[in-house]
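Schema walk-through. Below, the input block comes first and the output block second. Nothing else is stored per chain. Lengths vary across the set, and this one has 273 residues.
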Amino acid sequence: MAEGCTHDCSSCGSNCKSKDLRATLREGSCVKKVIGIVSGKGGVGKSLVTALLASKLKKNGFKTAVLDADITGPSIPTSFGVADQKAMGDKSGAIYPVKTESGIQLMSMNFLLEKETDPVLWRGPVIAGAVKQFWTDVVWNDVDFMFVDMPPGTGDVPLTVFQSLPIDGIIVVSSPQQLVRVIVEKAVKMANMMKVPIVGLVENMSYVKCPHCNEEIKVFGESNINGIAKDYGIPVLARIPMSEDISKAIDEGDVERLDAEFLDAAVDLIKAV
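--- output ---
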């Protein structure tokens, strides 16, 4: 990198081997740590894990925020019961996040749409640009931990987030099926290629507890998460059960009431990031 580099690559004539592509926060914003929640495929529970972790860290006394990077399929507003709210802006171009009942700061595409059911018919680069604006244009107020709920796969948005945001670590979410192993490995390999630290793995829908004998019933068969963790030297942070209580809380926008004790180990590692 050239001596006296300003990190503004657009105005630089030097042939640097390493150019800093990270976007700058809006003046007045402060975000101390950024954790990405990723997976190689959809439907495994990234948004659930994101919402639970933001809520649990908030209960631990930290100021938390969620940047919903799933532009075409956002579910964070519904989980927190704020789907009917809108993000407000001012003449300077600043956008102010929506706050939950406990004070968690949220930014999601649904806060900018006239109706939450309106589709976002944008191509990849435009979607990626919107995610970047959620970082640069939103006034994030003294955030200790920001969780980025990413869309599935290894395409434009994850690449933009890894390059543009100062990601301190990612959590990879999976489910027990054998098919998911290949998809999870893609996400892990992408993180390694981008030199993004992996905090650990979280397996969702791991089991159902029998209401009579409390036995764990493995609906999807034996888990593959230990094998992935061993192969890549990554810790397993949590196994989340299939639970009527969890499902009901999400559907009713009451995720903040869940204790989620199964995420205690994940919270401890995030604190140490």
